[in-house]
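Quick note —
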Amino acid sequence: MKIRKIAALTGTALLVAALSACGGGGATENGTGTDGSGGEVSSTPGMTTIKVLNEGAVSIGVGKLDDLFAAKEKEYTDDGISLDYTPGSPVETFPLQYQKIISEQLKSKNIEVVTEDWGWGEPLIQKQTAGFLAKNIPDIIVGETQMPGFAQQGLLEPFPDEMADEIRDTVSPAAWKPMEVDGKIYGLAAQPGVSSLFWNKKLVEQAGIDPDKSITTWQELRDNVKKVTEAGAGKFYGGGVYAAPNFGGYLRYGALIAINGGAFADDNGQPAFNSAQNAETVALLKDLNAAHPPGLMVNNNEGSYFDAWNKGQIAYLIDGPWRVQESQTAGLDLGMAPIPLSPSGKAANVTIGAAFHSVPKDAKNKEAAFDYIKVMYSEPIQQLVADSNTRSPILKSIGESKEYQEKHPEMYLHYQAMSGDVMGLPTFTKDNSKAWQIWGEAVVKSIMTDGDIQTLLDEAQQRAENVTK
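Predicted structure written out below.
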């Protein structure tokens, strides 16, 4: 699961698909950006205008930030929502306050921001691929699982050494470690997530288990989910982790793979599916599957799985920090702890819900773009993140403070999980999507059938090697 070098972008089919996807909201030739409908956004005289791809969690619209504030403020005012953000304020106001802080700090350096919406997931990857190939790319791009691959391909600008040193000293590893290649940092996430273990105290107590006691080992997890399933008698189940053959599954049980010393790929970007450590982890997944309603654990509809959690139908869950607030909204009495360890395992995690911001090699305003990223880990932005209580701050001075520990105990647990051995999902050297598909199919078959796990992983290894070499 370490970062590795991979081949450069190739493939005319991907290029054609990507270019056809680059519709409205893309970059313009003069570098001023668009308003999302193809209309040009003009630069303010004397200002450097940088183009930034939207991050959904903090988006307030598409266009020049200053032009978006008035409309967004009116929307909140009309809805009776106060614009004065204080701890505990409605989460709706968070994006506005976030963007205002960025805008105000950059104005002091004569920098203004134009946001562009290129979508998310596969459409975003296609547009970014096209932008790299055409050398027509915003000053800051954003993404999740694809970003380490872009760094490995040499498409991103490394952070200036002085800035990188400051980040290593002051910022939690989860925010930058997955974007480190050969000692250089290529991206930063202002509010990344990693997974923790959650449990529904009511269901656990009904199974005769102490609801206030956390569990620390895989065997305890196995035992507890079995007890809860038996106590539920078909009305509720033990649960465990989402394990569908998609990135939602890989991101969550990837933490278990990492804890047990396994990996999805080796240092050369080749599949590492059939290790003994991976077989042990898949065996755990198989046991956890027996503590779910039939088919739920591997259901490709991620929403169905987490809907079952919110309805109190499963007791244990490995997921990101947003689970705290969502569970409180659903009226669940929640327990939270680090993910249990295997017998020979060590604490480790995989970033999830991490929107990494990077500066492309072909960006036109690199210095101003890095100034934007510096604001992302500044104290005002990170204090706002801390006060929101939906993610942990990445700034060590806030996350490790006694005040934060006392005010936000659940999020402090999440902060601690961000500070250990944290990595991102790997990118395979060739035909990345097909390699992941082969892995996902092997895991589902291991979970849902009586086939020998090691044999199934051996077969998947051979198939994947035929694809990636």
